[in-house]
Amino acid sequence: QVQLVESGGGLVQPGGSLRLSCVASGFWFSGFAMRWYRQATGKERELVAAITTAGGSTNYAESMKGRLTISRDNAKNTVYLQMNSLNPKYTARYYCNANSYYYDYWGRGTQVTVSS
């Protein structure tokens, strides 16, 4: 059974940091590009970060570049999203996505709330 389980979200003050994790199971993790998306209330889901299968290349949403670091550990079937200098605009539900040529899998997300 394919699963992507996100964790690490929560309430954080402006300027704070969070590290999100996504643990994958049920498929060949190393063969999938991994992405993080976010969806704020009333808005469309948007891509915030992506990493290639071996982790050699990363991409970030322009609006969040410099505040995010995506990484992966293929031995642990886990992808991470380090978020720094958070501000209230980043409040959203963050979703993990695994993508290959034939398949596209999603987790249920983890809520990040940036508020004082």
Count of distinct strands: 11
What is the H/E string? Answer: EEEEEEEEEEE
Morphology call: globular
Rg over CA atoms, rounded to whole Å, is: 13 Å
Number of helices: 0
Question: How can the largest sheet be summarized?
Answer: 7 strands, mixed
Helix content: under 10%
Distance between the termini: 39 Å
Structural class of the secondary elements?
mainly beta
- Write down the overall mean pLDDT: 96
Could you name the ranges where pLDDT drops below 50 across 5 or more consecutive residues? Answer: none
Strand content: over 45%
How would you characterize this protein structure?
With 116 residues, this protein is an all-beta fold. The protein is built from no helices and eleven strands. It has strands at 3-7, 10-12, 18-25, 33-39, 46-51, 58-60, 68-73, 78-83, 92-99, 104-106, 110-114. Strand 5 (46-51) and strand 6 (58-60) form a beta hairpin. The model has no long low-confidence stretch (mean pLDDT 96).
